[in-house]
Amino acid sequence: xxxxxxxxxxxxxxxxxxxxxxxxxxxxxxxxxxxxxxxxxxxxxxxxxxxxxxxxxxxxxxxxxxxxxxxxxxxxxxxxxxxxxxxxxxxxxxxxxxxxxxxxxxxxxxxxxxxxxxxxxxxxxxxxxxxxxxxxxxxxxxxxxxxxxxxxxxxxxxxxxxxxxxxxxxxxxxxxxxxxxxxxxxxxxxxxxxxxxxxxxxxxxxxxxxxxxxxxxxxxxxxxxxxxxxxxxxxxxxxxxxxxxxxxxxxxxxxxxxxxxxxxxxxxxxxxxxxxxxxxxxxxxxxxxxxxxxxxxxxxxxxxxxxxxxxxxxxxxxxxxxxxxxxxxxxxxxxxxxxxxxxxxxxxxxxxxxxxxxxxxxxxxxxxxxxxxxxxxxxxxxxxxxxxxxxxxxxxxxxxxxxxxxxxxxxxxxxxxxxxxxxxxxxxxxxxxxxxxxxxxxxxxxxxxxxxxxxxxxxxxxxxxxxxxxxxxxxxxxxxxxxxxxxxxxxxxxxxxxxxxxxxxxxxxxxxxxxxxxxxxxxxxxxxxxxxxxxxxxxxxxxxxxxxxxxxxxxxxxxxxxxxxxxxxxxxxxxxxxxxxxxxxxxxxxxxxxxxxxxxxxxxxxx
Length: 607
Known about the structure:
Blueprint: H1 2-18, H2 21-37, H3 44-64, H4 66-90, E1 92-97, H5 113-122, E2 127-129, E3 139-141, E4 144-149, E5 155-160, H6 174-186, H7 195-199, H8 201-204, E6 205-212, E7 215-220, H9 227-232, E8 268-276, E9 279-287, E10 303-308, H10 312-321, E11 326-327, H11 333-339, E12 346-350, E13 355-360, H12 370-379, H13 382-389, E14 394-396, H14 420-429, E15 438-445, H15 453-465, E16 470-477, H16 479-488, E17 493-498, E18 525-526, E19 529-530, H17 534-548, H18 553-570, E20 573-579, E21 581-585
């Protein structure tokens, strides 16, 4: 490619010698501008095309006279201006979404997809998952260059990357790793719903030891095979102590640096983060001039701007109108299938590991009765939702662990879909029938945090009421209100979703009893009385702990299957469906990876 460019420039110089000295001024300007274009690898092809066109123009000029030459020079100058303007546009990727950061960009608290997405762009972890990894278990160096463990998998050593500089000039070393994990664990009592609490950092990590300036050791409390997955998750993002006190860091108006404790060791830095009433208005990321992998050409785009849309319909209009370069989370299934036939956009498809599940509030009637929870579960119709709402782009889920992953079963199939015989039988035993129906509220979020929430809820209502013995009232709240309702435990039943922290059954099985979901299934007593489900919860936790402490694949499969069997009996949390992944872009976009991690690596994307 460079040989073609050099040959073209030589030809231009030779032609310039032939023409007048006044003309040489224009020729020199043209050559200089065109040479500048070659600096960016992504524009080499475009530069060659324009150089070739320039040579053709000048050949025509030499045959037709100076007047035509002057006119051609004017046209060529205009063409160069257009190219330069286009290149300036290509430095920025504009992404549209219906999502929003849930609370903070503090890895000790953030536990939502979009918050983690931003953390991934601006922060660094010791290891990362290789883009395109089919199982999400192919780990590559990030802030650590290599690692090792003992045979028992309870001691892990990491040699760190040297020469990594934070935005304030601080040089990364082992003390920052230790501080990051010590801080995460220290904040668990005050942030019990944060990711380190949810993932059990305090139960896994005994202590972090600095062995040398660029070497750190983790002493674990158990043999723990998925440890690399934990380290690759956003909750393990390295923080800068200067901005990371032992306290939660929240959004700070007009001060993006003060709005996150992360060390800005990733490909981008947070340059703008505007929020109103708990909802994102604008987020802008700028290329990190200190990024350790700049020599590889990352990030590919100088800026990423996120624009936020109220719903899937307006998001579709934005990508079709060319207002954004990329639409990701959540274009509706109907829209994305329609857009496949639109020649002006491209649809990217990927593996799905995102799931949704049905939650029961077990601390009060009617769902303090296990029979009622099982009856409602039997009346659900997953297939109808997948076929009607998601148009076949999601699949029914009968285990909290997705298909294709170690430990997946079809345990909930024993209850069936729309199994009204079982529903009416169980509800009759609990005192409900066609004249005394089970009545409850079903909640869903209404602000686009999850895909097609209203449409899903309507299908669940129809299926449940199809039993003839259930009456459902649908209620909704935006994401901020929905989370507040969840924490306040005012919802009878509600729909929730999950995106993997790391791709391992260890990161899914615990959802049956995760305390931040607030089902109260895990409490020893409820309203001062013994919780009849508590022994089952203890049994599941014991099985779970045994599974995460062994590297025996066969044993792990057996243990997760037992957890599923208990989950079917208790029905505190019920799996609904697993989705596939998709994004929509304008045609000149490249470098999109939609793998099982569900990560969107914006630094790989280019125009």
